Amino acid sequence: xxxxxTKLAIGAVAAMAAAATLAGSGLRWSKGEAFFQDxxxxxxxxxxQIIDHDYVDATFNxxxxxxxxxxxxxxxxxxxxxxxxxxxxxxxxxxxxxxxFMDPSEYGNMKIDTSGELTGVGIQLSQDExxxxxxxxxxxxxxxxxxxxxxxxxxxxxxxxxxTEGMTTDDAVKLIRGPVxxxxxxxxxxxxxxxxxxxxxxxxxxDFTIRRDRIEIHPVKYSERRDQGLNVGYIxxxxxxxxxxxxxxxxxxxxxxxxxxxxxxxxxxxxxxxLYSSIEIARMWMDRGTIVSTVDRRGTAELEKANGRSLTxxxxxxxxxxxxxxxxxxxxxxxQDNDRAQLVGTQTFGxxxxxxxxxxxxxxxxxxxxxxxxTPNGTDINKEGIAPDVVHELSDEEREIxxxxxxxxxxxxxxxxxxxxxxxxxxxxxxxxxxxLGNS
Length: 440
Hints:
Layout: E1 2-3, E2 8-11, H1 33-38, H2 40-54, H3 65-73, H4 80-92, E3 100-102, H5 104-113, E4 117-120, E5 123-127, E6 134-139, H6 144-148, E7 155-159, E8 162-163, H7 169-176, E9 183-191, E10 203-211, E11 213-216, E12 220-227, E13 230-237, H8 244-256, E14 262-266, E15 272-273, H9 275-285, E16 290-296, E17 301-305, E18 316-320, H10 327-337, E19 342-345, E20 353-359, E21 365-374, E22 390-391, H11 396-404, H12 415-439
Parallel strand pairs: 13-14, 14-18, 18-19, 19-22
Antiparallel strand pairs: 1-2, 2-15, 3-21, 4-11, 5-6, 6-7, 7-8, 7-9, 9-10, 12-13, 16-17, 16-21, 20-21
Helix pairs in contact: 2-3, 2-4, 8-9, 9-10
């Protein structure tokens, strides 16, 4: 999660798609750009001060943070790039891939990314905390990466032939971005999801040539369909961007007018996005209860709750998988813990940290981990993810079929959707029985 001066967002570290941000407000403005051009030490010290005051780990990864300040302020810096490099070195000591410095170009791209209009290929990246590999959180649906067949958990090993070993997500973003209409070759390592007993997991290397594009993302797709004897409202939410809450509201209202029996909300491969978007959407499904709490290093908890303005109380099943991250986990965790919905699919991604995005004096920015978020039952999902109520894995063969035939996603030919329908049917039957008893 990340907080900016203007809005909060949550998600995995972003590349080519929505930013990995959690938003908030009330953060101070930095000093003027000209001042920092002449005094790069002041920029370094401002970053140090923000970390010292707000970083979630009061031990600073067991580093003497005051000693770090002295060491970096005692150096001479000939220009801003040298100061930027020093800041990145300083932040690496925290061992936190989500706390990162963004130069003015990177910071500008991050702000654009949360607007719902993207330029690139349409993927979100995260850096594995242990291996430091660049891992695809999820491709954004109907983007070039999605159409090319990039999948959640793919590891990007090369960009246009350049090995990604040692790269940060920002380094990779710079290589993957480019003019609209140009192409980039991504080399990925894909590990098999299935493993015979006692056998090592296999992997393959695949080259994808992907054409860059400018993409306006409409995150909600929905339809009314008759499946397994039910009138189902199917809603697929791809990302929690600036358009998500309003589009979700329209979808629910339209489906309510068609007298659906219940809903299937598909959050698979949804990498996250704006925090307030996830809270608004949770309130559309929940009439009461806690949605999420955040805890900083001082133990302060902030609660977000339902406000009694839900749009529907019909039965609900939520589909999740390993690409469902951050804001998706907040929404699915809230619905699960409040017994509002059952989750079907596989374990979610496990990104439960909150970042604040701060503008700095020279037009650059800093994302700093300031807290962690907990589900209503107090579950810390970071690195662990949320376990579905009904586990239903896709086989490698099933995943390949869906990858080649995207139109099958969210149909009865999609095994996870078929399982969600089965669970929904039981919910609808139970709700009908309760209603019948109440009216007798």
